[in-house]
Amino acid sequence: MPKKIDGIFKAERADNFGIPIPIVLSSKNQTVPDTLAQKNGFFSFSKWLIFSLIFSISIFSFSPLFKNKTLADSASLYRLYQDGNYLILFQNSDEIRPTGGFIGSFGLLKIKDKKVASFQIETNIYQKDNAFTNNYYIPQPEIIEQWRPGNSWNLRDSNWEADFAVASQDIKWFFQSQYNQVINGIVAINSNLLPEILAITGPINSPEFGALNADNILTQVQTEVEENYYKNADNLKENQPKMIIAKIFPAIIAQAKSNKIQTAKLFFKALSEKNILFYFEDYRQALASSKNWSGEINQSADNYLYINNANLGGGKSSSAVEQNVLYQLDEKNLALKIDRALSPRADNFLIGGNANYTRVFLPIGAKLTSATLDGIDILVDVKQEIDEGKNSFGFWFATDIGKTKSLEMNFVLPEIYDNLYLQKQPGAVNEKYEININGQKMFEGILEKDSRVYF
Q: What's the rounded Cα separation, in Å, for the pair 397 and 338?
């Protein structure tokens, strides 16, 4: 019978970091030798993103490329770049989770003397995660327990809190309980970045996989990893299904080097759109928070709306969901409508329904008066709680393929406001908002980053 853990460090921890693959960069511009890039499928999609991160930081640190606000952001970014051990999370946004996506893999990055000293990659998050939960029972958050009853909570599902700083405490606990490593911070990177990188570098021509570009790269990677790889019995012995990126990596890095300014701009864009998030154990957390790079629930806003989704068992369907939000405020009375439509993926990658749990965050004191899903009253099923200084309203919001589901909720807000802070979920795409105040349209469009609407 697994042992229930009551304290934060009562678990017996592993002696090593899974199957570590150490990489040492002796200078800021040194790249990884091709021999390592060819070995054991080391450069998966996730590994490329970490190198993009490191590469971008090197640019900011040593090249005066930017002016004005961007220059100030570069200086702030450099202040975050300090010695220590950092957990790098690679989140798959096609399977959206509260902080950006499912944690498919992760790495440990070591910075020493302001240089990248080494990093280690966990190539199989399930292996040690399952071994740990087989020996210790960790009570799951209520909604995850509804989704997968009777199981122990685990590292791969630990990014449950909508506030990344709060979620990082759970992530850190699982990591430090499973691996004998102390970390000074966490960086989360979303899969949405890969097509944008190829949009900069241009297409990659591969004899084995054909022409790979921003439009087809994620499809090709997912098809190769989840389908084609396992058609060859010899591959099962190696158990490295992400060889595709290893084989195309040299071409990607070579082309990225010739587009340094564009790569740096992409990095800042990813920060503003929350495709990269930071968490630190020291004074740097306040700096990251002040730049809105920390994924925290905004505490400065009086009037507030944050819609946070979690794909629980819906496969790689999140990018195929189009979410339309209609926010109508008349004095204190708020009518909120959310439509979620699930279409077949344009790339023909097979998906089923989208099993989703939604949380709506509103100002503290907001009162829910009615809630219907496709005309059915779900008021009693809405989970209401106070979360990080906001009122949270949570409910299951599953959508079948080829269908649209519509949620309508009515609230009374605690006071009359003159503005609205819209917070974007990390990793979210295809989310359109229409904001009507006292009968007048004040905003309409896709929410690409946090925005404030004045009225």
A: 10
